[in-house]
């Protein structure tokens, strides 16, 4: 199931906290839009230099450098040619005075004039403070720029949580005691189901982000990893949840 047609999304601005957020949440959308010749601008607030359980083997300078390379490879696979870094500290976004990042994001929106903006919802998907902060920044920047285009928030559907929620608990995906509210499919603004070549493309891009995705791929196996990443779902930010 796919709606609306990807072409209807027009020019896309895709704004996230860490490299791999965008590929997990909307890699298929960005790839399909890029293949159509639509403009896709992707923004990462940090380079994800703290994204490891082994900070001795992966000190921040090393991991940040590698994750930039991984992101470049993933963007090449997806066909996204405009990927930008804001270079804020991983794990520290909530402590930053929002005035500068909001102004910088507003400048990007003023330049790109997107028809569609993709970012986290208020829960950040996993309740990661960086994810939640980016959601706040993008919403404020969108308002400051005169609300160009349609702001869409990533979400999980009730059917997805019914299928994968227990697994997410086992994997420790959620970072607080809070849990996302599943959205009924009929309330979605964008619902993309990936299969075949397009799903291959997304999984290849995720595989390029080896430092982040290799453990999950090893634990789940190919079929389950593909299945868990085949849906990309967004809700209109102005609609009540």
Describe this structure in words.
With 241 residues, the chain is an alpha/beta fold. It contains 8 helices and 8 strands, in the order ββαβαβαβαβαβαααβ. Strand 2, helix 1 and strand 3 form a beta-alpha-beta unit. The radius of gyration is 17 Å and the shape is globular. The protein starts with a strand and ends in a 5-residue tail after the last strand. The mean pLDDT is 95.
How far is the N terminus from the C terminus? 22 Å
Helix count equals 8
Strand arrangement, major sheet? 1-7-8-6-5-2-3-4
What is the beta-strand fraction? 5-15%
The radius of gyration is 17 Å
The CATH homologous superfamily corresponds to LmbE-like
Low-confidence segments, ≥5 residues, pLDDT <50? none
- Tell me the series of helices and strands, N- to C-terminal: EEHEHEHEHEHEHHHE
Question: What is the β-strand count?
Answer: 8
* Global morphology: globular
Q: Helix/strand-derived class?
A: alpha/beta
Task: Output the keywords.
GlcNAc_PI_deacetylase-related, 8 helices, LmbE-like_dom_sf, 241 residues, Rossmann fold, hydrolase activity, acting on carbon-nitrogen (but not peptide) bonds, in linear amides, zinc, LmbE family protein
């Amino acid at each position: 199931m796919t709606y609306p047609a990807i072409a209807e999304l027009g020019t896309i601005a895709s704004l996230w906290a860490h490299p791999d957020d965008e590929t997990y949440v909307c890699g298929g959308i960005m790839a399909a839009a890029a293949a159509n010749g639509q403009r896709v601008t992707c923004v990462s607030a940090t380079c994800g230099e703290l994204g490891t359980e082994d900070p001795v083997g992966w000190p921040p300078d090393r991991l940040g450098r590698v994750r930039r390379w991984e992101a470049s490879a993933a963007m090449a696979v997806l066909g996204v040619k405009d990927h930008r870094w804001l270079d804020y500290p991983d794990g520290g976004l909530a402590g930053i005075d929002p005035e500068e990042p909001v102004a910088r994001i507003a400048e990007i929106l003023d330049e790109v004039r997107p028809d569609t903006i993709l970012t986290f919802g208020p829960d950040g998907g996993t309740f990661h403070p960086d994810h939640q902060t980016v959601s706040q920044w993008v919403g404020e920047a969108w308002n400051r720029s005169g609300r160009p285009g349609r702001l869409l928030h990533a979400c999980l559907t009730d059917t997805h949580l019914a299928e994968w929620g227990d697994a997410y608990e086992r994997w420790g995906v959620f970072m607080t005691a809070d849990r996302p509210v599943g959205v009924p499919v009929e309330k979605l603004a964008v619902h993309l189901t990936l299969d075949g070549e397009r799903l291959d493309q997304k999984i290849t891009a995720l595989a390029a982000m080896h430092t982040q995705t290799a453990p999950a791929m090893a634990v789940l196996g190919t079929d389950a990893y593909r299945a868990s990443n085949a849906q990309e779902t967004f809700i209109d930010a102005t609609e009540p949840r």
